[in-house]
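Now for my pick.
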Amino acid sequence: MEADGGLTLMAKVEENRLSEVLAGILPPPERVFTPPMDESNAIEQRHILIYGGPGSGKTNAFRHMAECLARLYGSRFLHVACTEADLAGLLARISPSHVVQLLCCEDMTRVRQPEDAIHGYFTIRHLMARRTGGRHGLIVTAFTTHDLYGVQPKSLRTSCDLFLFLESPANPHDERLAVEMLGAEVYEKLKQVEQLRLSQPEYKGWAAYSTKWRRGMAYIPKAEYQLQPQHPPQLLESAVALAQRILGRRMERMDEEVGGLHEEVLRLLRDGVTRLPSINSELRMFHPDEVEAALFDLERMGYVKLRGPRNRVLMLLFSEWLLTRKGADYLKALGGSKT
């Protein structure tokens, strides 16, 4: 590994970060945030397979991917969720109120996935369209595994936009598949990096990758992104009251899940309702500093170029903010006079 390894490899960290590899397979923001002019489904999907044994850094790699997507598309538009060996559960994690979704199914070798979940995965773009009420966006799915050959059906481990190997396989079946995906030269570099790790821990961040256009070694820095616990959010009474005011009617069920309220707002947007109460004054009154930052992001991403009144976009943004603890606290500070 003298030509491309050792100090030479470490000197190439900046130009070979995983973020650069991801940038090569992800669509630009303007394509993700712009609705199609016709009735077609323009939601894009990218599929990533992360291979490595226990302690190899699979979770860190996924968290770093979340950081990369947050920088590219804006953290407020990104939804991140994980399940463990549960493809059906992964499909259920699609958020009804986010344009960009990053979903990870960890340890795909533990159980055989049911047929309906497999079918749902291969039609996930249509599932996201139904769940969000939109026809544009991006959904990135990632699988982690320590046994390539054990991922069934075969199409789940072959139809990938990015293969990421944090270490070389120990069994001959997986080794053959790894060589096919990476190529013999890159696979040999990966094995040599593994040897260097024994005495030089800084090499732990290097992994082998393969996309449709490139193969090589990529550096994965230690991620700071923290995955949130997957607990269903609790609906706050003050948030419900003001959301009802914005929607112009009472909710049928006060214990309705947050996702249901988001779907209601999205349904209004999707159906092209034009007689919606203007909330520009409410935004100025209830939602101080966050509005300016949010609108800046929306303009930068081209999101406010949606057909239809601009305040529809603001309405969606505002209704989401109301369902957060910060939104409820702000309402409480006003003494409830506006609810």
